[in-house]
C-alpha cells in the first residue's frame, strides 16, 4: 500500500523520458492522521470489488460449470506449495522488470510494456470468464462473438487507461475491472489446499517486497502513478491491484465453499484486517497491504474447510 506521496521532483526531457532530481525537504515530510475521510473511500472501493467478485462466484455456482483446477504441481500439500510459488515468482519477475525500467528512466518503454501487459491479461481473463459464465444465448454466433467482443472492449478500455492515466475515475474503474477479474479467476480455478496456501505465500512475499524487496525500490522512486491500472488511486491513497484482488478473492472463495454465510464471514474479517492495515499507515509512507487482511481471511477459510 502506498499513499501516493511523491518523494521527488521530476522533469521530462525532449525524448519523453523522465529524469529525476533529488527529493526536496518538503516531500520528505509525512504528518498524516488516519481519518474517516482517508479510510472510507478505500473501504468502500474494496467492498465494491468484493461484492462484484462474489456476484461472479454466484453465477459460477448457479451455472454449475465444470472448470479445470489450477494445479500444475498437483493437489497435494507439497504440490499446492509449488502451485503458489509459481505465481509468486511470476509476480516477482514482473515487479523486477518494472523497477529496472523505472530506474533506467524508460518512461515510454514502461508505458508500452504496461499497455501490452494489462491489455493482454484483461483480454484473456474477460474472454475466459464470459465464455464460462454467460448463459447460453441460443444463437451460436452470439455464443462466439459476445465473449470476444466483451474481451476486446475490456482490453481496449484498460489499455487506454494505462496510456492515458489522467482521469482518476477512469483509472479507478480500470483497476476495479482488472482486480475483480483476477480475483474471480483465482476463486473459480484455485481449489483447496492451494487456495489456503496461496494467500499466505503472497502475504509473506508482500512483507519482503515492501520492506526489503522490489516494491520498496518501486515505492522509493515515487513513480507509482506511472503503473496505471496496476495501482488504484483511491482518495489520498494508492493501493496495489494485488491487494484489492486478494481482498476480493477471499470472500468469493468463502461463498464457493459455504455460500453466503461463508462469504459474509470472510468479508467481515478481511475488512477488519484492512482497517487495521490502514491504521498502520499512521505517519508511514507505505505498509504491506496483504498480511493482516489476508491472514485473517485465510484463517476464516481454514475454519470453513475444517467444519464437519
Task: Tell me briefly what this model is.
This protein has helices spanning 25-28, 36-63, 77-103, 107-133, 140-163, 168-189, 194-211, 214-221, 241-279, 291-306, and strands at 10-12, 18-20, 231-234, 237-240. It is mainly alpha-helical.
Can you put this structure into words, describing what you see?
With 308 residues, this protein is mainly alpha-helical. The chain has one domain (33-306). 69% of the residues lie in helices and 5% in strands. It has helices at residues 25-28, 36-63, 77-103, 107-133, 140-163, 168-189, 194-211, 214-221, 241-279, 291-306, and strands spanning 10-12, 18-20, 231-234, 237-240. It has a two-stranded antiparallel sheet. The radius of gyration is 20 Å and the shape is globular.
H and E string: EEHHHHHHHHEEHH
The chain-level structural class is mainly alpha
Task: Write out the strand line-up for the largest beta sheet, numbering strands in chain order.
Answer: 1-2
Count of discrete structural domains: 1
Helix content: 55-70%
C-alpha Rg (nearest Å): 20 Å
How many β-strand runs? Answer: 4
Number of helices: 10
Biggest beta sheet attributes: 2 strands, antiparallel
C-alpha termini separation:
37 Å
- pLDDT average, as an integer? 82
Q: Unreliable runs, pLDDT <50, ≥5 residues?
A: 1-29
Q: How would the global form be characterised?
A: globular
Kindly estimate the percentage of residues that lie in beta strands according to DSSP. under 5%
